[in-house]
Automatic annotation (TrEMBL):
It is found in: Cell outer membrane. This is Outer membrane beta-barrel protein. Residues 1-21 form the signal peptide. It comes from Acidovorax lacteus. It comes from the Bacteria. Gene3D superfamilies: 2.40.160.20. InterPro entries: OMP/PagP_B-barrel (IPR011250), OMPW (IPR005618). Pfam families: OmpW. Keywords: Signal.
Length: 196
């Protein structure tokens, strides 16, 4: 009988400890990542439009509603790209692509993989294109995500993350729509996360 009571007491202590550890982490997480942006460059204008791939900085803020469910806001600074037609540079533009995603986090022996889905809004600015050529400066599209947080120390994680973001703009020549240009990049990131 005493052995059973000791076993139950030990189980309760372990469960309480795990719960306290989870609470100690807090509901917020901030990550800083270095991200490689690889553009899909799908063009229906017939001009062979493309933007360059590049490395960008990224910061995100997550709030955990439960141990498994979180919302993540992904931010960066406006990124300058060269726009080319058939491989020849024809101008430049900047894009600012914040995304808001809802995530589900797993816990596999302390390693925490996650998947997410949400919405991206991209604002194009500082558009410098040939005379008579313009683009729609606003883009809304879905964003998909998968990643993992690997514990390094108390509340500190190594983060690996992959996103597919759907970004497109209509292209106009002399006021007439010439087609649609889809950037639709894949973003592969690595960084650090801090839970508090």
């Amino acid at each position: 009988m005493n052995k059973h009571l000791l076993a139950v007491a030990a189980l309760c202590a372990l469960t309480s400890g795990a719960a306290l550890a989870q609470q100690a982490e807090g509901p917020w997480m901030v990550r800083a990542r270095a991200v490689h942006l690889d553009s899909a460059n799908k063009d229906s204008t017939g001009l062979g439009l493309s933007v360059n791939n590049k490395a960008i900085p990224e910061v995100d803020v997550s709030y955990f509603f439960t141990p498994n469910i979180a919302a993540e806001l992904i931010l960066t600074v406006p990124q300058k790209h060269t726009l080319s037609a058939a491989g020849v540079p024809i101008g430049t533009l900047k894009h600012l692509p914040p995304s808001l995603l809802l995530q589900y986090h797993f816990n596999v022996g302390g390693i925490k993989p996650y998947v997410g889905a949400g919405l991206n809004y991209t604002r194009f600015s500082s558009v410098n294109l040939p005379a008579g050529v313009t683009i729609d400066k606003n883009s809304f599209g879905p964003a998909l995500q998968a990643g993992v947080d690997i514990p390094l120390a108390k509340n500190l994680y190594l983060n690996l993350d992959v996103k597919k973001v759907y970004i497109k703009t209509d292209v106009f020549a002399a006021g007439v729509k010439a087609g649609t240009f889809k950037v639709d990049p894949v973003l592969v990131g690595v960084g650090l996360g801090w839970r508090f």
